[in-house]
């Protein structure tokens, strides 16, 4: 469902993503982890067609991004790390706008909007988006994606700004969708979420994937938490010890 070969992105002389390979099967929840600036968001932007790779190949749903970009974008959903929504619209106007773009202005979609709004406690669709908090915008963005039931969903730090109940509902919904065959690609700084939710994890550091596999494979039989493993692989464990000792 998601395939990348030698995916590379350079900004001038800086290599943000350096020749990574990904292969993600249908119905899997795939966690993409890494420190700030490691290349996570750049990778998602290339996989979803909002940023052109410098080199390499992307296939989504078996389709080449270079030749089938519009069809791919019709069939996937993206929740970015920052909800970028038109501030001059009201909540319901934004959802209607999305429905019209994807040609899904149907009774079924409207019913899902009602169900998702109730689930996430969204009772402010008549409110101007410019007056909404980050968390309110995040919920609106999540609803605008889930209401379409896309075949592949990309989420960049999806729980940031969400209250505990909404975050829990989102996690349970993603697992339900994965069980129904939807493929989920998510980044998160909350390693507990990745450890509990993800079928497979890749860790990226300085633009390169340094580890990949399911949790047990990554741990290699050692009794370590994902947090400890992550800090060890990204060479941050010693830095933390030195910082704490110096304080």
From TrEMBL:
Return the InterPro entries for the record. Answer: AAA+_ATPase, ABC_transporter-like_ATP-bd, ABC_transporter-like_CS, ABC_transporter_ATP-binding, P-loop_NTPase
Q: Where is the ABC transporter domain?
A: 2-231
What UniProt keywords apply to this chain's record, in alphabetical order?
Answer: ATP-binding, Nucleotide-binding, Transport
Pfam assignment, any one: ABC_tran
Family from the record: Belongs to the ABC transporter superfamily.
Record-given protein name: ABC transporter
Origin organism of this chain? Answer: Thermosipho affectus
Q: List the lineage, top down.
A: Bacteria, Thermotogati, Thermotogota, Thermotogae, Thermotogales
């Amino acid at each position: 469902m998601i395939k990348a070969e030698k995916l590379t992105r350079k900004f001038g002389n800086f290599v943000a993503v350096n020749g990574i390979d990904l292969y993600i099967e249908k119905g899997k929840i795939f966690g993409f982890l890494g420190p700030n600036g490691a290349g996570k968001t750049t990778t998602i932007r290339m996989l979803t067609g909002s940023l052109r790779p410098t080199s390499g190949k992307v296939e989504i749903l078996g389709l080449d991004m270079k030749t089938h970009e519009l069809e791919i974008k019709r069939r996937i959903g993206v929740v970015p790390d920052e909800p970028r929504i038109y501030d001059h619209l009201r909540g319901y106007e934004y959802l209607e706008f999305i429905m019209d773009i994807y040609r899904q202005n149907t009774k079924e979609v409207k019913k899902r909007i009602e169900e998702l709004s109730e689930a996430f406690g969204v009772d402010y669709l008549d409110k101007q988006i410019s007056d909404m908090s980050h968390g309110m915008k995040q919920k609106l963005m999540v609803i605008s994606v889930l209401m379409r039931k896309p075949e592949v969903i990309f989420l960049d730090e999806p729980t940031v700004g969400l209250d505990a109940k909404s975050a829990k509902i989102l996690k349970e919904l993603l697992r339900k969708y994965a069980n129904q065959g939807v493929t989920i690609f998510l980044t998160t700084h909350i390693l507990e979420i990745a450890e509990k939710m993800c079928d497979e994890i890749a860790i990226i550091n300085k633009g390169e994937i340094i580890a990949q596999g399911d949790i047990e494979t990554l741990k290699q039989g050692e009794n370590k938490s994902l947090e400890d493993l992550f800090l060890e692989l990204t060479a941050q464990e010693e830095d933390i010890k030195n910082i704490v000792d110096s304080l």
